[in-house]
Each structure stands twice: as structure tokens, then as C-alpha cells.
Write a structure and sequence with these properties.
This protein is 46% helix and 14% strand. With 250 residues, it is an alpha/beta fold. The structure holds 3-methylbut-3-enyl trihydrogen diphosphate (2 copies) and magnesium ion.
Length: 250
């Protein structure tokens, strides 16, 4: 992709979402928090569909953070079950719609059975090209940068690389999203305006959109508003607005 395409594109190529507010959605209805997580799955389906129809190429969803283990054991267990049943139920459908599924995060913490299903789902859908759906599960931006750094340090210790060859590009090549375009648009539902250890490295130049809507309430219309916000931004990547305008006129 050329430089100017990055400045001009009106539909984000890569959307990254913090799906927050499930618990509050349930509590508002007098339901257990878990009911909110279940309802949140419908929003995931809707987002996949709308990304397919809008031509978004990569959709990264934050499903479970490295810090979410701090939640009550019961909620963590229910979330793991939901993850497992969702994988079982949805993978075929995703495959049918030519969606490639990828899971990023420290997966060794998951039950062996879940790890197997993740690997099988990734394998099945590996060659699909309509949309890449990336689920961040047991993911943390700090974990990601740490594991990349560790890998490079090991290579350096073995004498395979010299310290002065470590560049941002080399670090990027070791991150979970290596080789994929950085997110153009970040969305966080649920009203909080924070990153909560999501894609720390990759969000450097991402347009940030926050909405008070709770994740189970986030529908096509809400996403359309986020896309409209994105289309209205002038991305500058450090340049001046005048430089960007000149580039677009050329
Ligand atoms: C986001 O919803 C889903 C996960 C973190 C798994 P929350 O469960 O954080 O919902 P709130 O923020 O408590 O409402
Ligand atoms: C971020 O939401 C993680 C996910 C949506 C998976 P949290 O609800 O865990 O974030 P904090 O704790 O409010 O920052
Ligand atoms: Mg939350």
C-alpha cells in the first residue's frame, strides 16, 4: 500500500475494538453479568457481517485481557466456556463466509482442549481472504511487547543478531500482529476512555473513537457512526495539514 492510500482511505482497513460494558448491560436488566457476555456475542456476529459488507479487511476484537484473570473465578470460567462454545458454533459459519480466524494472546494459559480447538479453527480458515477476524484472548499489549523482546534477546544471546540491528520494524515482526496493517480505527464501547493494555504498540497512529453505548447495544447504526467519524479525520502521521492536502491534490 502506498503512503497516500493510508492518508486517503475513507473505510478503515483494520478496525480494533474493546468490547466493553457487557456486565453493566446485564446489571441494568437485573441479570447476572454472564448474560451480558452472551448478549455481546450477538454484537460480534453483527460486526463481522458489517465488516464483510463494508470491505473492512481486518477486525481485531479484545475478548479477554491478561488482567481479566483477576475477576471472580466463576466469571472467568463462564467466559472460557463461552469462548469454547462460540468457537464450536461459529467457526463453520465463518469459514463459509471466507473469514480467516486468528487468535492472539498467551494461549498456553488455556485448557488443552481449548488450545486444540483454537489451532484447528485457525488451520481450517487459514486460506480465507474475505476478512481476517482476530480475537485477542488472554492478550495484553505489555505481554506482546515483552514476548517480542524476549525472542530478540534470545537471538542476540545466540549471536544471531546484533543489538544495533534492532529496529522498530524488527520488533514489529515479532509482535502478534506481525505483517498486518496497523489498526486505522479503534473503537471502545462502554464509556471508558482508556486503552486497558490493548494493542499498545500498534495503536500509535490509530484514530480513537469512544462511545457510551454498551457492547451488547453496539449495532450497525452505531458502527456506521464510528465509520463516519473515521471518514472525517485528517490523518497526518506527523506531517502538517498543508503537506497532507498537497499530497492529496497531487
Ligand atoms: C467486557 O465487558 C467483556 C470482558 C472484559 C470479558 P465487561 O465484563 O468488562 O463489562 P463491564 O465493563 O463490567 O460493564
Ligand atoms: C477491557 O475491558 C478488556 C476487554 C474488553 C476484554 P475491561 O473491562 O477489562 O477494562 P477495565 O478494567 O475497565 O480497564
Ligand atoms: Mg469492563
Amino acid at each position: 500500500m502506498s503512503d497516500s492510500e493510508l492518508y486517503t482511505r475513507k473505510v478503515p482497513r483494520h478496525v480494533a475494538i474493546i468490547m466493553d460494558g457487557n456486565g453493566r448491560w446485564a446489571r441494568k436488566r437485573g441479570l447476572p453479568r454472564f448474560a451480558g457476555h452472551k448478549a455481546g456475542l450477538d454484537s460480534v456476529r453483527a460486526m463481522v457481517k458489517v465488516c464483510l459488507s463494508q470491505g473492512v479487511e481486518y477486525l481485531t476484537l479484545f475478548a479477554f485481557s491478561s488482567e481479566n484473570w483477576r475477576r471472580p473465578a466463576e466469571e472467568v470460567g463462564l467466559l472460557m466456556n463461552l469462548f469454547m462454545t462460540a468457537l464450536d458454533r461459529e467457526v463453520k459459519k465463518l469459514h463459509k463466509h471466507h473469514v480467516r480466524l486468528r487468535i492472539i494472546g498467551e494461549r498456553t494459559a488455556f485448557a488443552p482442549e481449548l488450545q486444540q480447538r483454537i489451532a484447528a479453527a485457525e488451520q481450517l480458515t487459514a486460506d480465507n481472504t474475505a476478512l481476517t477476524l482476530i480475537i485477542a484472548a488472554n492478550y495484553g499489549g505489555r505481554w506482546d511487547i515483552t514476548q517480542a523482546t524476549r525472542g530478540l534477546a534470545e537471538q542476540a544471546a545466540r549471536g544471531e543478531i546484533a543489538a544495533d540491528t534492532i529496529t522498530p520494524e524488527l520488533i514489529e515482526s515479532r509482535l502478534s500482529l506481525a505483517g498486518l496493517p496497523e489498526p486505522d480505527l479503534f473503537v471502545r464501547t462502554g464509556g471508558e476512555q482508556r486503552i486497558s493494555n490493548f494493542l499498545l504498540w500498534q495503536l500509535a497512529y490509530t484514530e480513537l473513537y469512544f462511545t457510551p453505548l454498551l457492547w451488547p447495544e453496539f449495532d450497525d447504526k452505531a458502527f456506521a457512526a464510528a465509520l463516519e467519524f473515521f471518514a472525517g479525520r485528517q490523518r497526518r502521521f506527523g506531517r502538517t495539514g498543508e503537506q497532507v492536502e498537497q499530497m492529496l491534490d497531487a
